[in-house]
Amino acid sequence: MISKNIAILGGGNLGASIAKGLVKSGLLQASQITVTNLELHMIQPLQDEIGVNITTNNIEAINNAEIVIVAVKPTVAHALLADIKPALQKDKKVLISVISGVKLQDLENVLEDVPVIRAMPNTAIAIQESITALSFNEKGLAYKDEVVEIFDQLGTTMIIPESKMPAATVLASCGIAFALRFMRAASQGGIEIGLSSKESLEVAAQIMKGASKLIIENGTHPEPEIDKVTTPLGVTIKSLNKMEHEGFSSSLVQGVVSGHKKILETES
């Protein structure tokens, strides 16, 4: 466990997922976490379900914390950062930003000498299965071990130069949606060939879990694992070739690349 308190400014999907993951991990007690939202009823379920503190007052939350996670939308980020700057500077708080498209330099321009870290997790952080990309400003590096310890309890971490953060955002954060869309499509195919909706979704979810664990635990590349089930004249290769003919891999690659371009446009 860590002894510091954490304030999460912005109790939307990602902010709420971080709070849930922190409590589930046992790294902090629920009483050490405060989540904010302008509409208290939106985060009331967090207090009811996992016991964290909730408030509409960002400054109050910051004053009761040593680490501040900002999880608001990019459109309101600048105004919020300017508003909380004095509270952050007052007691040398550490700020972790999970705001998509807002660079370290943008944060520094507003916050000046505050230690800043950019983190890009995904919503699987709620069940401690996120991959979180981290980038640090110079002052933030002093807190690297502490921040890595936090996010390692919520899945795995990857420290990268900030120049790679747009790519990490698309693949690590948006990638959850890509994987879930594959699951949905596979499940729909299963229904068409005779499985019930429940059966088909259960199979699709488990094959994704199994495939992921094969790569993670064996440290292999997908192709050798694919080769193990693609026998000559078999069903698997017939199905794979049909998918490739219809653009399966190409469409996924282009989707990732398209998302990357969108982020670069946002950051420019």
UniProtKB/TrEMBL annotation:
<dbReference type="InterPro" id="IPR029036">
    <property type="entry name" value="P5CR_dimer"/>
</dbReference>
<dbReference type="Pfam" id="PF14748">
    <property type="entry name" value="P5CR_dimer"/>
</dbReference>
<keyword id="KW-0560">Oxidoreductase</keyword>
<comment type="similarity">
    <text>Belongs to the pyrroline-5-carboxylate reductase family.</text>
</comment>
<dbReference type="Pfam" id="PF03807">
    <property type="entry name" value="F420_oxidored"/>
</dbReference>
<keyword id="KW-0641">Proline biosynthesis</keyword>
<dbReference type="GO" id="GO:0004735">
    <property type="term" value="F:pyrroline-5-carboxylate reductase activity"/>
</dbReference>
<comment type="function">
    <text>Catalyzes the reduction of 1-pyrroline-5-carboxylate (PCA) to L-proline.</text>
</comment>
<keyword id="KW-0028">Amino-acid biosynthesis</keyword>
<protein>
    <recommendedName>
        <fullName>Pyrroline-5-carboxylate reductase</fullName>
        <ecNumber>1.5.1.2</ecNumber>
    </recommendedName>
</protein>
<comment type="pathway">
    <text>Amino-acid biosynthesis; L-proline biosynthesis; L-proline from L-glutamate 5-semialdehyde: step 1/1.</text>
</comment>
<dbReference type="InterPro" id="IPR036291">
    <property type="entry name" value="NAD(P)-bd_dom_sf"/>
</dbReference>
<keyword id="KW-0963">Cytoplasm</keyword>
<feature type="domain" description="Pyrroline-5-carboxylate reductase catalytic N-terminal">
    <location>
        <begin position="6"/>
        <end position="100"/>
    </location>
</feature>
<keyword id="KW-0521">NADP</keyword>
<dbReference type="InterPro" id="IPR000304">
    <property type="entry name" value="Pyrroline-COOH_reductase"/>
</dbReference>
<dbReference type="InterPro" id="IPR008927">
    <property type="entry name" value="6-PGluconate_DH-like_C_sf"/>
</dbReference>
<dbReference type="InterPro" id="IPR028939">
    <property type="entry name" value="P5C_Rdtase_cat_N"/>
</dbReference>
<feature type="domain" description="Pyrroline-5-carboxylate reductase dimerisation">
    <location>
        <begin position="162"/>
        <end position="262"/>
    </location>
</feature>
